[in-house]
Amino acid sequence: MKNSLGRKIPKGYPLFESSKAFENKKRVLIPEVKTKNREKLVKSYSEVFDKLGIKDGMTLSFHHHLRNGDQVLNACMEEVKRRNLKNLTIASSAIFPNNEILVELIRNKNVTNIYTNYLNGPVAEAISHGELEGILIMQTHGGRARSIEAGELKIDVAFIATPAATKEGDGSGVDGKNPCGVLGYPIPDMLYAKKKVVVTDTLVDKLTITDIKKEYIDYVLIVDSIGDSKGIVSGTTQVTFDPIGLKIAKDATQLLYELGVIKNGFSMQTGAGGTSLAVASFVREKMLQEGIKGKMASGGITSYFVSMLEEGLIEEIRDVQCFDLEAIQSYKKNEKHYLMSASKYANPYDEPVVNDLSFMILGATEIDLDFNVNVTTSSNGVIMGGSGGHSDAAYGAEIALVVAKTMNARIPIIKKVVTTITTPGSDIDCLVTERGIAINPKRKDLLEKLKMSKLNIVSIEELMNLTYQFTREPKPFEHKDRVVGLVEYRDGTIIDVLYQV
Fold first, then answer.
1. What is the H or E stretch that residue 328 is in?
2. Which of 375, 368, 474, 458 is nearest to 416 (CA)?
3. For 51-67, what is the mean pLDDT?
4. Euclidean distance between CA atoms 132 and 388, whole angstroms
5. By mean pLDDT, which of 58-62, 132-136, 232-236, 410-414 is the weakest?
6. CA 270 centroid distance within chain
7. Distance (Å) of CA 448 to CA 262, 358, 425
């Protein structure tokens, strides 16, 4: 079987065909798990590995709310290394440069398969160069929750990094020494994994907010540190000050206004990139100018949305992950700042919040003439990201809008064919660049609304040809024959493959 770009999909995997309504609902009932009334406290990773009988071939899961500050995955891998366990599958919702220990375990065949939604740093490079013996499965945030709930991704032990917990196993992300805010991503793991371990560096008698429920928890592991909450904030979670990025953000905001989606009662989400966050800032200005009040902001939450909530510009926040310390404090004190699980956020079979979005602001490493978007690999095929909620929100939102410069370090963003499909062009509506705005021809309704617009509306082919005057047309991507990873669409079908480089 081949995908839309002619790349072979390995046998035994369902092929993505189109972004259509999700008809074959797959979800199993939440297991009737009530942990026994016994002592749950353990004091070392070694002790909990012994008690749970962790052995070769198991699947261990982790979440990424502490992002590049997480130490729980690393500490577990140190224990795996000490015991020399083999053939493990790691199912972490994201993997960051901080998790470099995985490279050694991959080379030593301790870890042979990985499921994740986002992958960046030394681990990504090692897998790109063919060092993972098994396969990498790149999922979406909603797709990960769906696969766990459908029984496709079976987790033996979930390690849940929890900033504060009670000895019974209730957990919170807003208390403790290293608060990270809402704990939306590990909730499917908490509900469906065979065994669950809360890992905390702060034991308390009472929590401000309870995200993790004790009845599902088998053990509470007390450690000196789960990581550093300052690692939540990175360059990708701060608004851009680049003049080109700001122009793109301003034009994107004007486009959305002319399309009629910035209006009373609208809902929105922006990505974590600097230009995407700048759009949020300009949307706020437009709302103040026009007296507009929105209904909801969702997804990963930053201080920009927190300010809008406090100013009364939006009614509520639906939060799956806090991207800065202001968002953490907002969740702790504002009753209109709600937690949502990864499933409620984006699982296509759970009536997800992404389906209620008026618009979504997305980034792109590459976009092609069919509006397929790549945020998984660089143009030379090295893994450097992943969908996260990209595909989920693009499908669900009324307007899925990509913001990107036409070139980056003289490498064109628009290509005839993307290196890797992360999100299909059928889910993308608009591309906003510093040199013009392209509307997907399938959205004739949007083109009709923009007939009298003063914005520079051009075809994506025109944008590509204009860019090539400065960069020249790039050579086709060359890769080895070996497939090192698969890119899943949110329904579990395979949309593209990742080759060894």
1. helix 325-333
2. 368
3. 97
4. 21
5. 232-236
6. 12
7. 18, 18, 20
341: region left, alpha or beta (phi > 0 left; psi from -120 to 50 alpha): beta
How many Å apart are CA 144 and CA 146, to the nearest integer? Answer: 5
Within 420-459, where are the H helices?
Answer: 444-449
Please answer whether residues 437 and 254 qualify as being in contact, where contact means their C-beta atoms are separated by less than 8 angstroms. Answer: no
Helices 274-290 & 303-310, crossing angle to 10 degrees?
20
Tokens 């962790």 belong to which residue? 54
Element containing residue 314 per DSSP (H, E): strand 314-322
Exposed/middle/buried for 94, CB within 10 Å: 0-12, 13-18, 19+?
A: buried
CA angle 398, 400, 401 (to 5 degrees): 135
Q: What is the rounded distance in angstroms from the CA atom of residue 339 to the CA atom of residue 64?
A: 16
**% helix, strand, coil for the chain, step of 5:** 30, 25, 45
CA distance 215 to 37: 9
Q: In whole angstroms, what is the distance from residue 424 CA to residue 373 CA?
A: 6
C-alpha closest to that of 384 among 130, 140, 124: 124
Q: What is the pLDDT of residues 349-405, one digit of tens each?
A: 999 999 999 999 999 999 999 999 999 999 999 999 999 999 999 999 999 999 999
The residue assigned the tokens 């079979």 is 349
Single-letter code of the amino acid located at 369: L
Residue 385: CB partners within 8 Å, gap ≥ 6? 118, 119, 120, 365, 375, 376, 377
Find residue 439's DSSP bridge partners: 430
pLDDT for 86 beyond 80: yes
Cβ count within 10 A of residue 21: 5
Residue 31 has pLDDT above 60, yes or no: yes
Residue 407 CB partners (closer than 8 Å, separation 6+): 413, 467, 470, 471
Q: How many residues are present in the chain?
A: 501
> Taking the CB of residue 250, how many other CB atoms lie within 10 A of it?
17
Q: Which of 124, 115, 71 is nearest to 93 (CA)?
A: 115
Q: Are 405 and 413 a contacting pair, CB within 8 Å?
A: yes
Side-chain-side CA neighbours of residue 367 (13 Å): 29
Instruction: Tell me the H-state helices in 38-161.
Output: 45-52, 72-83, 101-107, 122-128, 141-149
Question: β-strands 366-368, 373-374: how paired?
Answer: antiparallel
Longest CA–CA span in the chain (Å) reads 70
pLDDT band per the 50, 70, 90 thresholds, residue 443: very high
Place of tokens 């008698």: 205
Tell which residue, 90, 81, 22, has the closest CA to residue 46. Answer: 81
CA distance 417 to 21: 26
